[in-house]
């Protein structure tokens, strides 16, 4: 097979997987995503029955020795995405933070690389780490989302662009005006080419219900301890539920407890219930 034919086959297969991923976003029957940060966690999630795998930018950054918050470079991030996509047999959506670029053109380059790595979805956030304001200006962020859409259109892949707004996560502005600001940003992002809206930090069912009604687009929430259960979130029309960095953080908590127990008590009870060596090895059998 020629390289051209191989590329065409890859693109066709990836476009199909992108459509498959898009169809998983159904209001009231949410896509559940316990986010992964490496190949092992991705396979564990897939083995548990996940129809798709999502990465967590924080977990990825931590595992590579970098703080979260636009500190990880594009290269290492894309390499990790490629490793995950090559390891699992389900669609992969990647958390690309702000796009690993200062400009919209740079975001377009990033998304091109992410698509080449095998992902069919991305999260792009409007938090502006180190910027003059907590969030990027709406027009600026809309341009970045439009750039992501251009990159996907250029290769014929219907990438699912999940536009994340951190109005609630970063407590931006007056609480009374936060819903309006979230809707203002969401409308601009959807008009620029986003497919869904992600509002981490918000778990109030009444507010989520109003957002679902106003947006007319798949709504993604961040869940964890203290948040309403899946059934309650589904009941107000949420289409996607992510666990974000919390799974990685919980795994690291086990490592911390095991280390402290070893040094303080000389015992190993924290390791009770660990996955077996053979069980983990079997996740990769036949995948060389």
UniProtKB/TrEMBL annotation:
Pfam families: PEP_mutase
SUPFAM superfamilies: Phosphoenolpyruvate/pyruvate domain
Keyword list, A-Z: Lyase
Cited InterPro entries: ICL/PEPM, Pyrv/PenolPyrv_kinase-like_dom, Pyrv_kinase-like_dom_sf
Domain of life: Bacteria
Chain ranges passing through the membrane: none
Gene Ontology terms, MF aspect: lyase activity
PANTHER family noted in UniProt: CARBOXYPHOSPHONOENOLPYRUVATE PHOSPHONOMUTASE-LIKE PROTEIN (AFU_ORTHOLOGUE AFUA_5G07230) (PTHR42905:SF16), PHOSPHOENOLPYRUVATE CARBOXYLASE (PTHR42905)
Protein name: Isocitrate lyase/phosphoenolpyruvate mutase family protein
Lineage: Bacteria, Bacillati, Actinomycetota, Actinomycetes, Streptosporangiales
